[in-house]
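Q: My labmate handed me this sequence with no annotations at all. I'd like to see what the chain might look like in three dimensions before we decide whether it's worth expressing. Could you predict it?
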Amino acid sequence: MAYLKQKNYLYTKNDPKASKEDTLSLLDQVTEQNELLEDIKKEFPLNEDLDIGGTKPAINVFNEIDNKKYDYNLSLNNLENLDFKRVASGSNNYRLVFSVVSEEDKTTLIPNVETIYDAKKKLLDLLLEINKFSDFMLKNDKRKELVDELTNLSKDKDINDKIFNFRFISSKDDGTEHEFLRSVVTKNRYKTYDNPIILYISLILIHNLSKTTKKDFYLDSMHVSDSTLDASFLEKSGMKIDKDIIVTTGLIISNSELGDGAAKFNAVYKVENTDGKKVTVIRDELATINHGNNPDTIKEKLKILENLEKNRKDTILAVKEIKWSKKIKRDDVLKLMTLISHVRNIPSRLKDSMIKSIDQIDLTKKAYNVLGIFDKLDGFLEEEDPDIALILESKFNEWLTRF
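A: Here is what I predict for the chain of 403 residues:
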């Protein structure tokens, strides 16, 4: 998915650690959540500089995402001038456009709003359960009839009193401010755990783990957009499991501001050899933060991560079971091609490229081992959408067990 604004950070050796002030500055991005912020600081206190390499430049990159974000609790009755706008790109050919007005005197609060991401689907399904119907009508050139139906429904008191949390975002283009609806979520349970809060909690968590386990961590990579976050933390010292193979373990944190879902904490490991071949693999989901949780509930859920050392040992044992130096045969290649073709929620062009690359391997000219062929697959993910990369890195874990 293409976002309005997105940035990447990759760790470089000796990248500096963030200060206490750098870390707390993340929470300055959160507005109109004073009570929640106080609870977060209470449950996840920070009284010193971080002991995690790379966090200072990573926070600087994070702060470059500066879109204005704001929420309103609205019903269908607050939406006027509903219409549909055809867009040139994307699988969703239409955006819903409208103005937001006040309940009392119909004063315009936000003019000329457009839906982005999956907001059209969420709005029409949550409020009216008619997104598929709208797609059918638009596909059959019935836009006017569809708009008339929406207008009529907005006057129905039994329908338009359902209130949801509408998540808006602003973006500047050639000096002109544009207003977008990026999501619609449940009003009563949504705590607005946006990216700054999740990154802050993650940094405190890793910092404390570093102190208790006496292991140094660094922020290996981070992808942040106006609405999503993926950050990978690895230990600095890996373990040699073969004469030239090293495994490094860590955590990957992912979050989305676009729904009622959860921030996820997964075990991750990286295997590399002295020839520079490597693969990153997501193993277990260790904990989740539901967007409806209170800060004390979050803290209780994250206690499971205190067992990171046990998970690390389990991961290393599992990695040792994989025959990384096993020579790949043609049957193995065909097996991998089949597995790739069956992955869901992956673009066809990516699957086709990966399958073609694997199929073209000439085993008579070069001996491939397990790590070598997974290094080839891993290379496809370097410039890929992080959401897609997460799906495939999780699949790598499943596929590697077959070797």
